[in-house]
Amino acid sequence: MSAPSRQRPRPHPADLLGPARSRLQHYLYDLAELVAIDSGSYSPDGVNAVADWVQARLTSRGFAVERIRPPAAAGAPSDALRTGDVLVARKAGRLAEADGGRRILLVAHMDTVFEDGTAAERPFTLDGTHAHGPGVSDDKGGLLAGLTAIELLQEQGTSEYAELVFLATPDEEIGSPVSRPITEEVARDMHYALGLECARENGDLVVARKGVADFRLTVTGRAAHAGIEPERGANAALAAAHLVVALQALNGRWDGVTVNVGVVRAGQRPNIVCPEAELRLEVRAATAVDVRTVRWAIEDAAARPTVPGTTVTVEQLDECPPMEATAATHRMFAVAQQAAAALGFTLGATATGGVGDANLIAGTGVPVLDGLGPVGGADHSPQEWLDTATVPERIALLASLITALGDGDA
């Protein structure tokens, strides 16, 4: 905790609710403007239009903004992955670390899953308290909530933290392939991170996310004429079929672990004993230990192919670390619960199998609390919605968390 003599009185959460409510109409105007921008992950110009918008808001509030063009996009060949920029904005607070000041990271993403033209086909609409439109919940509503909470605190004259950092990524919806090293580098200097994905449909925050590991298994056999001398062949397709059964049987062996063989490729002609097959599978698990355990089980199954003359090689293509529910995460959630109670609502916590940038931050060892945007749902679909009635309370909650964590109260 910071020294009381050097700390200004922290605003009570309830004192932030009125100012948050007064900003609701402006929030809705801004949300409509953001939703009107097509910003699919593979639309760098659209993502950068969102980045321009966010940069203007943060610059006007005294943040130093850096725009980083990911290396994979800089000077890349025409067939390479191209994304928008990563935006990193920083602002120093009034508390030194020696006095308990903490560095707080807010993270949101600017990309959506939708193709160019979707914003015109399904423009922003408001049906009662429910807003609709591409990205309204995932994640433009959450991103805007973060910006609004920052502005709310500044208007209250509150900067009780060592540093506040706002990170906006361009490629979260495709697994953050180019922004990942930047996210990890930024996160390593932080004390706490707050993820701005929207709250679950029941209002829960997210305290844990499963990790994901992708594997490719290549089965090598031996070709032969299927009609004249099939006994000289070694059927890789048959070996792969047995392997699919063995791998799917790993489901249920460990709590919270799922294994899915999603792609099977084998052979070219029906009159040739299949010489090669490929399996692509995904593993999701709540802990890093479980991910390693499943990898060992996959390698064990691959080492014992059922068809004589076949061999199997295992490659791990990628891994996104789990966001584990640590003791520090639970302390952060307890602070959030206290603030929610002061604001007049109850707050639950949940774990999810979906992954996001919060996983990458957690992988650096920084405690993360996610789902701090307004309540929303039906992400990635034409029915996507955001409950605007929850916007003021969630902005006030987020602003309260920033001040509580910023002066070391967790």
Automatic annotation (TrEMBL):
Cofactor dependence: Zn(2+)
Record-annotated Peptidase M20 dimerisation domain positions: 207-306
Segment forming the signal sequence: none
Active-site residues from the entry: 111, 172
GO function term, MF aspect, one: metal ion binding
Gene3D superfamilies for this protein: 3.30.70.360, Zn peptidases (3.40.630.10)
Protein name: Glutamate carboxypeptidase
Alphabetic keyword roster: Carboxypeptidase, Hydrolase, Metal-binding, Protease, Zinc
Superkingdom field: Bacteria
InterPro entries hit by this protein: ArgE/DapE_CS, Bact_exopeptidase_dim_dom, Pept_M20_glutamate_carboxypep, Peptidase_M20, Peptidase_M20_dimer, Peptidase_M20A
